[in-house]
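Hi R.,

Here's the chain you asked about this morning:
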Amino acid sequence: MEVRGTHKGKLRISDTLVLHNVLLVPKFKFNLLSIKRLCAQLHSTIWFTEDMCILQGPSQMKPLAIGRDHKGLYILDKKLLETAEFKDTY
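And the predicted structure, written out as tokens:
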């Protein structure tokens, strides 16, 4: 099965955390996030526990729990996601 990202844009996680060049794959039930790119783009560290993932960025005073375990996947907390803007990639 071939899968394509159809849109590219930015995802605002909070006032100070914005991810750029995020790809949207509409046919996926879940959108996947590259931890390597997230850490590189935000110059941050991410820790995983058995039930949550926690992000610590250089401009943050304290770590931010950004996802919780749900059936083996870490799902981003929708309350943290402020806005997403996508444009066609093709």
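The first strand starts at residue 7 and ends at 12.

Let me know if you need anything else.
M.
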